[in-house]
UniProtKB/TrEMBL annotation:
Residues 7-143 form the UspA domain. Belongs to the universal stress protein A family. It comes from Paramecium primaurelia. It holds the Pfam family Usp. InterPro entries: UspA. This is UspA domain-containing protein. It comes from the Eukaryota.
Length: 280
């Protein structure tokens, strides 16, 4: 799978976390020209007159203008800075609307906001919570900046459960793992009642991956009624898994024909130390 050339968008609030998200976007954008544009978006709230200088809209604009001008010709970037629209509930919803209007391929946000890392890291900030629960485009939540080097590429772990959404997530990981140094770990973590589906899922994954030139491996974890804890333990005990890719919901939602944000996705979002790629 190759991305239909589109745009990658970073939402910024002037925080260090959103700047880190910008640099992660740059890592994807600069290689092989798979995106047409990198878009930096900021929505300001005029009622917040108390914000310090570094968080004011004009300061943020000038900062990113310099960053973009120093890297790309003007055709390769956009700065989309808006005031919160009258009647808009909050700036977060407006950012999601902008992402939809611009038909971006990915929306990238920092995992934390202006207040920095929370004492309890499993408590989500408002921006990342609203984004992952409501985004209609694939979303990357950046917890740490990862870079390719001379020998190592990005390493993606893709959570697969046999649902259509999980195969859509695999497609997203394939699209982003475009460097020959990148690799995929495709992981099935069954509950005991679904352990027998492992052979079928593995066969389908092998057929699916046969279409692409990617480095990958398939892994089935031991069956457990808390299978997601096994996945998180595997990710957090590894030093070389950079991104965890999953659907916003999985097999149960597919069976029930519902679109709720799944408990597995919620646990991964909060507890996995890797950067998050969530496919709606």
């Amino acid at each position: 799978m190759e991305l239909n050339k589109s745009n990658i968008m970073v939402a910024t609030d002037g925080s260090q976390a959103s700047k880190q998200a910008f640099f992660q976007a740059v890592e994807f954008f600069e290689y092989k020209n798979i995106f047409n544009q990198i878009i930096v978006t900021h929505v300001s709230d005029g009622s917040k007159t108390y914000l310090p200088f570094e968080f004011q809209s004009t300061t943020i604009y000038e900062d990113y203008k310099v960053e973009l001008l120093s890297r790309y010709p003007e055709a390769n970037y956009q700065l989309v800075f808006q005031e919160k629209a009258q009647g808009q509930e909050n700036v977060r919803n407006q950012i999601l609307s902008i992402a939809g209007d611009l038909n971006v391929s990915y929306l990238i946000v920092g995992f934390n906001g202006r207040k920095g890392v929370k004492q309890d890291v499993t408590i989500l900030g408002q921006t990342v919570r609203n984004s992952v629960y409501n985004s209609k485009v694939p979303l990357i939540a950046v917890k740490k900046l990862y870079k390719r080097d001379e020998t190592n590429g990005f390493k993606f772990v893709v959570c697969i459960d046999g649902s259509k959404k999980s195969y859509k997530s695999l497609e997203s990981a394939i699209a982003l793992s475009f460097d020959e140094r990148d690799s995929l770990l495709i992981c099935f973590a069954p509950t005991p009642d679904r352990e027998a589906f492992g052979t079928t899922i593995k066969t389908k994954v092998e057929e699916f991956m046969g279409k692409y030139q990617r480095k990958w491996q398939y892994k089935q974890l031991d069956a457990s009624y808390r299978a997601i804890e096994n996945v998180i333990e595997m990710i957090n005990n590894s030093d070389d898994l950079d991104f965890v890719v999953f659907g916003s919901n999985g097999y149960r939602a597919q069976l029930e024909n519902k679109t709720f944000f799944g408990s597995t996705a919620d646990e991964l979002l909060k507890k996995a130390k890797a950067n998050i790629i969530m496919v709606p």
